[in-house]
C-alpha cells in the first residue's frame, strides 16, 4: 500500500460538465490571480516589492499558490498586476520554470479590482478560478468542481466557516450553502463565514461588471447573492495569508509542513474493548504489539504524533474526564519511556446521539488539531482502525491508512518511513 495515495479519488468528477442557466462549462484550467495592490498592511516588506512577492520561508508567497494550481490540474495562470509589476514578471517569466503557462495584464497601481478584471476580460476563459494573491487554502479541486456542477449557479466562492472567530465574517448562507448576503463592508448583522477567494466563476457572472472603477466583490458577489445566483463551498480548514504582518508567523508555520501523523487510540495504540465497553482505568489498558515501537520510530524520524479519539464512556457515565486524563498521562509516559512522544490528544466525550461536531465520523477533532498546529490536512496522514475513522479523514481531506489484523501501526509506520526515505533503526 502506498500511504501517500490513500485518499478518496473521484477522477470522473473532473470530466463532469457544469450546466448553468442554459450554458455548458468544462472544468476550468485557467486561474486568474488579483495581484496588483500596494500591500500597505505588509509594509515595510512591500516598500520594494508587491504583496505576492512577500517571502515565506525564503520563497515568494505567490510561488506556493502557483505550485498548488499546477498540482490541482491548472494549466494556465493570468496574473493581474499593478504595483511594481516587473518584480513579479522578472521572477516568474512565462511560467515554464514552474511547469505552468503564465500570462500578465497590467493596470495602474491604484486601480480597483473590477477594473483589473475588465481590462483583462479578453484573456479570461468562460469558466475560471479567481484567487487573491494573499490567501492560501488547501483546495481539492475535484470536490469543488463536483459542488459547482450540482449548484448550477454562475459563481461559487469559497467560504471559511469561521467558527473560531478567526476573522470578521462577510457572508450569510442558507441551509443549502447558497449565499444570501455578501457584504464586504461587514456591516450587516449576522455575518459569519469569511470569503477567501478560490472562486469558480463564469462569463455569466462577469456580465455584471460595471463601467466604473470599483471593487470586484461588491460589483459581482453582492448582486449575485441578492439574485440567489451565488453558491458557497464551505470549509472548516483554516486559510493562511500574507494580508498583514500579524498573520505572517502562522503562515510560515503552515508552510513548513512539519511532519505529523494523526492516530486513533483504541484499536491502533491499544487493544480495543468490545462495543459499548471502555478502557476506564489504566489497569484495563493493553498496548497492541509493536505500537510503542512505532511511536519511537516516528519520534526519531521527526514526526509529531497527535491522538484523536472518541470517548463516549464519559457521556455514558462509565468514567470521568479525570479518569481519562489519568489514562492518557500513563499512556504518554510509557510511550516516552519507549522512545516515543505523543504531542497532543484530542477526545470527544459526547454520546453516540448527542449530535456534536467532534465525534467521528465527523471531522471536528481533526480540524481542531489543524488550527492549533497549523496543519495542512491534505498532506497529513490519519491512521485509524474502522469506517468512522476513514469517513472522518475523507471529510477533512486527510490522507488515510487503516490498521487491520494483518497490518499493524508498526507495519504502516515502516511503510511510511520507507516511502519518505528515513532510515529505520
Describe this structure in words.
With 425 residues, the protein is of the alpha/beta class. 28% of the residues lie in helices and 20% in strands. The protein has helices at residues 61-71, 85-92, 113-119, 141-151, 203-206, 216-226, 248-255, 291-300, 321-337, 364-373, 387-395, 409-419; strands spanning 18-20, 23-25, 30-35, 55-56, 59-60, 76-81, 101-106, 127-132, 135-136, 155-160, 171-173, 179-182, 194-195, 199-202, 230-235, 240-241, 260-263, 304-310, 344-348, 381-384, 399-402. α8 (291-300) packs parallel to α12 (409-419). It is globular. The chain starts with 17 loop residues before the first strand and ends in a 6-residue tail after the last helix.
Helix run count: 12
Query: Taking Cα atoms only, what radius of gyration do you get, to the nearest Å?
Result: 24 Å
* pLDDT < 50 stretches: 8-13
Query: How far is the first residue's CA from the last residue's CA?
Result: 22 Å
Describe the largest sheet: 8 strands, mixed
Total discrete domains: 2
CATH classification class of the largest domain: Alpha Beta
Per CATH, which architecture of the largest domain? Alpha-Beta Complex
CATH topology of the largest domain: Spore Coat Polysaccharide Biosynthesis Protein SpsA, Chain A
Q: Helical proportion?
A: 25-40%
Shape verdict: globular
Helix and strand composition category = alpha/beta
Residue-averaged pLDDT, rounded?
94
The fraction of residues in strands falls at 15-25%
Topology, number of strands: 21
CATH superfamily of the largest domain: Spore Coat Polysaccharide Biosynthesis Protein SpsA, Chain A
Amino acid at each position: 500500500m502506498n500511504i501517500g495515495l490513500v485518499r478518496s479519488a473521484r477522477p470522473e468528477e473532473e470530466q463532469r460538465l457544469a450546466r448553468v442557466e442554459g450554458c455548458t462549462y468544462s472544468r476550468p484550467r485557467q486561474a486568474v490571480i488579483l495581484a496588483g495592490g500596494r500591500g500597505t498592511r505588509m509594509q515595510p516588506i512591500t516598500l520594494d516589492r508587491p504583496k505576492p512577492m512577500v517571502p515565506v520561508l525564503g520563497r515568494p508567497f505567490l510561488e506556493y499558490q502557483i505550485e498548488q494550481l499546477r498540482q490541482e490540474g491548472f494549466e494556465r495562470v493570468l496574473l493581474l498586476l499593478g504595483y511594481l509589476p516587473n518584480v513579479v514578471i522578472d521572477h516568474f517569466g512565462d511560467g515554464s520554470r514552474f511547469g505552468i503557462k503564465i500570462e500578465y495584464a497590467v493596470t495602474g497601481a491604484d486601480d480597483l479590482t473590477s477594473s483589473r478584471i475588465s481590462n483583462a476580460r479578453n484573456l479570461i476563459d468562460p469558466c475560471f478560478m479567481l484567487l487573491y494573491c494573499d490567501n492560501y487554502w488547501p483546495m481539492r479541486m475535484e470536490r469543488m468542481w463536483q459542488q459547482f456542477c450540482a449548484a448550477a449557479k454562475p459563481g461559487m466562492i469559497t467560504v471559511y466557516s469561521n467558527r473560531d472567530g478567526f476573522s470578521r465574517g462577510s457572508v450569510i448562507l442558507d441551509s443549502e450553502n447558497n449565499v444570501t448576503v455578501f457584504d464586504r463592508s461587514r456591516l450587516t448583522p449576522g455575518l459569519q463565514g469569511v470569503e477567501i477567494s478560490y472562486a469558480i466563476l463564469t462569463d455569466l457572472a462577469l456580465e455584471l461588471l460595471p463601467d466604473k472603477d470599483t471593487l470586484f466583490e461588491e460589483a459581482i458577489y453582492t448582486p449575485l447573492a441578492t439574485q440567489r445566483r451565488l453558491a458557497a463551498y464551505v470549509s472548516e480548514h483554516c486559510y493562511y495569508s500574507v494580508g498583514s504582518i500579524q498573520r505572517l508567523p502562522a503562515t510560515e508555520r503552515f508552510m513548513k509542513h512539519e511532519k505529523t501523523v494523526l492516530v486513533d487510540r483504541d484499536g491502533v495504540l491499544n487493544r480495543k474493548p468490545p462495543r459499548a465497553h471502555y478502557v476506564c482505568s489504566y489497569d484495563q489498558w493493553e498496548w497492541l504489539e509493536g505500537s510503542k515501537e512505532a511511536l519511537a520510530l516516528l519520534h526519531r524520524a521527526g514526526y509529531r504524533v497527535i491522538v484523536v479519539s472518541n470517548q463516549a464512556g464519559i457521556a455514558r457515565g462509565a468514567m470521568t474526564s479525570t479518569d481519562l486524563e489519568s489514562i492518557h498521562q500513563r499512556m504518554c509516559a510509557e510511550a516516552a519511556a519507549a522512545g516515543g512522544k505523543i504531542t497532543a490528544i484530542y477526545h470527544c466525550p459526547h454520546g453516540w446521539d448527542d449530535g456534536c461536531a467532534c465525534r467521528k465520523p465527523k471531522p471536528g477533532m481533526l480540524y481542531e488539531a489543524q488550527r492549533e498546529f497549523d496543519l495542512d490536512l491534505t498532506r497529513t496522514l490519519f491512521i485509524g482502525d474502522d469506517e468512522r475513522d476513514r469517513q472522518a479523514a475523507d471529510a477533512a481531506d486527510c490522507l488515510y491508512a487503516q490498521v487491520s489484523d494483518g497490518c499493524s501501526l508498526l507495519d504502516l509506520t515502516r511503510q511510511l518511513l520507507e516511502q519518505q526515505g528515513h532510515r529505520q533503526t
